[in-house]
Specification:
The protein is an alpha+beta fold. The protein has one domain (about 5-155): 60s Ribosomal Protein L30, Chain: A (2-Layer Sandwich). About 20% of the residues lie in helices and about 35% in strands. The protein has 2 helices and 10 strands; from the N terminus they run E-E-E-E-E-H-E-H-E-E-E-E. The protein has helices at about 65-80, 105-120; strands at about 5, 10-15, 20-25, 30-35, 40-45, 85-90, 120-130, 135-140, 145-150, 155. A 5-stranded mixed sheet has the order 1-3-8-9-10, with no helix packed on it. Strands 2-5-4-6-7 form a 5-stranded mixed sheet, covered by helices on one side. Strand 6, helix 2 and strand 7 form a beta-alpha-beta unit. The longest helix is centred in the last third of the chain and has 15 residues, at about 105-120. The chain is globular, with a radius of gyration of 14 Å.
């Protein structure tokens, strides 16, 4: 039986096969899944805010996109992953409160996309934007990402 690891807001976790990484209640946050399916190693980052954390911040730096992506890459490399083999999927960045002046979801998406481009990480698929909450899971052994939107059934991304 596969071990299930929850990845909460602001967390970054990496692991080897026989594990499923899960994150739920994703609204304006963006969850990044990264996997090297050849080595059966994966990681997940649950990003809450765009950009990099302020220098004076000492806790929860990985709530910010740049810090989370840096930590995720570091974790994957420590598990002997070749950065060129990493494939990424993105889920989240919704405006769940449906406020016309709420841009945090859009800002998170843009920040994550720019940082992934700068780090030369390949995006395989994404389910971002809109107005519904999501959840996501990464089956590390299979290299597959599934997600839900609102109360709908799980779909393969």
């Amino acid at each position: 039986m596969k071990k299930i690891i929850e990845v909460n807001t602001g967390e970054v976790k990496a692991c080897r096969e026989e594990t499923i990484l899960k994150s739920s209640a994703i609204g304006s946050c963006v969850v990044i899944t990264a996997c090297d399916s050849k080595r059966k190693v994966g990681a997940m980052a649950h990003v809450m805010l765009p950009g990099r954390s302020p220098k004076e911040a000492s806790l929860n730096r990985t709530r910010y996109a740049a810090d989370a992506i840096d930590a995720m890459i570091k974790e994957l490399i420590s598990l002997k992953v070749n950065k060129d083999n990493i494939e990424v999927c993105l889920v989240g960045g919704a405006n769940v409160l449906k406020r016309s002046d709420d841009t945090i979801g859009k800002d998170n998406i843009e920040s994550v996309l720019e940082l992934l481009r700068k780090n030369r990480l390949k995006i395989r698929a994404k389910a971002v934007g809109g107005t519904v909450r999501r959840s996501v899971s990464l089956d590390v052994e299979r290299g597959s990402v599934s997600y839900t939107e609102a109360d709908e059934s799980e779909k393969l991304l």
